[in-house]
Amino acid sequence: MSAVIINGTQLRDDIVAELRAEIEAAGSPPVCLATVLVGDDKPSQIYVRSKQKKAAEAGMQSRHVAISGDVSQAELEDTVAALVADPGVHGILCQLPLPGDLDAEPLLRMIPAEKDVDGLTEASLGRLVRGQRGHVGCTPLGVMRLLERYNIPTSGKRAVVVGRSTLVGLPMVLLLGRKGVDATVTLAHSRTTDLVDVCRQADIIVAAAGQARMITAAHVKPGATVIDVGVSRTESGIVGDVDFEPVSQIAGAITPMPGGTGPMTIACLLQNTLEAARMQGAFPA
């Protein structure tokens, strides 16, 4: 058996087109995403440019703030404060990690939940826990969008999330277990002693531990859905947490790496930005 390949790139482009149609149908009111990039890290620059490109394709405005890597903490906080105060900016994304000794936590605390389109602040995570309206982290939200669009059943199914980060693992557990999704969720990690046995019980595996090819064919029940979130840079290039080729012969559906969950992060960032404009009264409900 060969698994269905879950194409995140295609779904990203579909979502971007849907967002553009929705914005145009509303008369094209301005919806603005602001990005803040500190330093000259090349991968971060490429990633931010990709966000700007897709925002333009969705009919949104981009405001990019590029800052020298020798900026002081106070100057950087002033920059973010100005974006927070600007009613023309609906979403704010600070590209992480920051260089040097700059501290991201004070910056995140400055961003109100309504503009936190990356879903990283304490307020956003708190809203997710309490089931209140807010922005969900783009990567775990992207996983949910993939499951929805590919009609992967979740209700009553067993899901295992491998990885316990606040960026992916913990919100992923909450999203899969919430009412309406109704999966029975197990949180595992690199120190789970019986990880193979735990994963083999799962109908859905979300691998987000950041350890190259840690999920092997031995971990996967035949027909299970395997979502690869991990990214590791190796001598042979970028690989995920899933040993793709052998697992794809056992799984029912699987995301590639790259081309799976990565593109969905940008799609969900733009979905969050439109929702941010709604929350601030700048876009029709």
Describe the protein.
- By secondary structure, the chain is of the alpha/beta class.
- It folds into two domains: 27-113, Leucine Dehydrogenase, chain A, domain 1 (Rossmann fold), CATH 3.40.50.10860; 138-261, Rossmann fold.
- The chain is built from ten helices and eleven strands.
- The chain has helices spanning 8-25, 42-57, 73-85, 104-110, 122-130, 138-149, 169-177, 195-200, 244-248, 261-279, and strands spanning 4-5, 32-38, 61-67, 91-94, 158-162, 184-188, 204-207, 225-228, 232-234, 237-239, 253-254.
- The strands form three sheets. It has a six-stranded parallel sheet with strand order 1-11-8-7-5-6.
- α2 crosses α10 and α6 crosses α7 (169-177).
- The mean pLDDT is 96.
What is the fold's blueprint, element by element?
Layout: E1 4-5, H1 8-25, E2 32-38, H2 42-57, E3 61-67, H3 73-85, E4 91-94, H4 104-110, H5 122-130, H6 138-149, E5 158-162, H7 169-177, E6 184-188, H8 195-200, E7 204-207, E8 225-228, E9 232-234, E10 237-239, H9 244-248, E11 253-254, H10 261-279
Helix pairs in contact: 1-10, 2-10, 6-7, 6-10
